[in-house]
Amino acid sequence: MEMEKEHRSSHPRLVLVPLPFQGHINPMLQLGSILHSKGFSITVLHTAFNSPIPSNYPEFGFVSIPDNLSEQLISADDLLPFISLLNLNCGVPFQECLAKMVQKQEVENEPSIACIVYDECMYFCDAVAKYVKLPSIVLRTTSASTYLSRNAILQLKAEGVLNSQGTSTNIQGAVAYLISALESLFNIFYLGSTSQDLVPGLHPLRFKDLPVSKIGTPEIFLQFITNIYKTRTSSAIIWNTNDVLEQPSLQEIQKQCEVGIFPVGPLHEVAPASSSLIKEDNSCITWLEKQKQNTVLYVSLGSVASVDKKELGEMAWGLANSKQPFLWVIRPGSVDDQEWKKLLTEGFVEAVGENGCIVKWAPQKEVLAHGAVRGFWTHCGWNSTLESISKGVPMICKPCFGDQRVNGRHVSQVWRIGIQLENMCERGEVERAIKRLMVDKEGKEMRQRAKNLKERIQLDIREGGSSYNYLNKLIELIMSF
Ligand code: UDP
């Protein structure tokens, strides 16, 4: 034990800077755990907003930085302006904190900081790292295909298909009313395509699957992707994906990228500790224990997406009418109406009986690994997609915004392990999709493909696999700084 400590303190320190949202904190802390197991000391520099829970990672150091942000629920609508504000507010306090850490390490002979690993959305870190003369590495927490499709959007802008306001340069006046819906602009103006047409070079994405945002002005969105993709001084890019899932996209990106990319995912498979910001309700595991093996549909839309009262009702009755047992996560704040609970009492409770369980937040990885679970109705956040794939669970995809559409399209069309709900959520469509996945032969075939993919991923993270090899190469690179 003592020897292990000695060995650890001789290894350099890594400073990790996560974006303070669940879907970003998880992969960053998982990466930290993996690198800690290889001997590095880990310090997490984080905002006061949505601060991670240090007791989940007693082996890490945590340093909180004032961010001037009020503790509030951030909806998808507020996300991009919030990230922009975060980057404006955090630069100075992070820089001061890092400068002190560097000074202290010299005086107190602490392990030296080898580099800063920051979430792609915390792009202010690039300048901070430069200022304190430390190397930096970017962690991308979305899929490689999302990167390529966002790049395609930037290209449309560069080619003049969009001007800086996101409007068409050709027919500007006629489309003023469409400015706030960037996706409509792509659909209508790019080569006269409709939303169903395939985007050239991005098979199997249609224009409607592009990860554009309807939120705020197109300018905010274009600025956001420009900021996260701007060429900076970082020495490498770590990616929470792998060759099994995305080799063609990764190869394409490596051709475009001046620095090495390291697809070392899925990180949660190598570092399973929880970094949940919301208390997990373990009673759902007790409920799962009482269900028959391989029968339950798990339903969750992640940590940010929300639904309106009407959609919630359609989801509820689709689930009830399907007669399949379900475990449903309804996160506080995820329904736009305080009165939503009434919807789930009027006849719904009687219709469902013991066949359903609703919780505010679940230990998702444990749920997906449970033998009772047969399918996952997901919003296709990248973490949820990876967690489902690595447990061999096929999906019903109901993407809500941004990269979720790209992920959903890959689940249904590339890996063919899920069904995408295409239209507005309507109870008949929901019921049919559930039966297709849970009962029909089609669902059985998807389950078999999901199992095969899971096995390939398990091999990939073991000795000799590509994820495993990339991790070793990443460690070599960090040790060379
Ligand atoms: N999650 C969880 N319990 C829940 C719902 C979600 O622990 O009840 C976790 C899930 O395992 C995943 C993360 O929250 O790691 C959500 O990330 P994702 O990228 O799927 O979606 P986002 O929340 O960023 O939209």
Automatic annotation (TrEMBL):
Q: Name one Pfam family in it.
A: UDPGT
UniProt keyword Transferase, yes or no: yes
Quick check: keyword rRNA-binding in the entry?
no
Name the keywords, alphabetized.
Glycosyltransferase, Transferase
GO MF terms here are: quercetin 3-O-glucosyltransferase activity; quercetin 7-O-glucosyltransferase activity
Q: Tell me which InterPro entries the record gives.
A: UDP_glucos_trans
* Family designation: Belongs to the UDP-glycosyltransferase family.
* Protein name listed in UniProt: Glycosyltransferase
Organism field: Gossypium klotzschianum
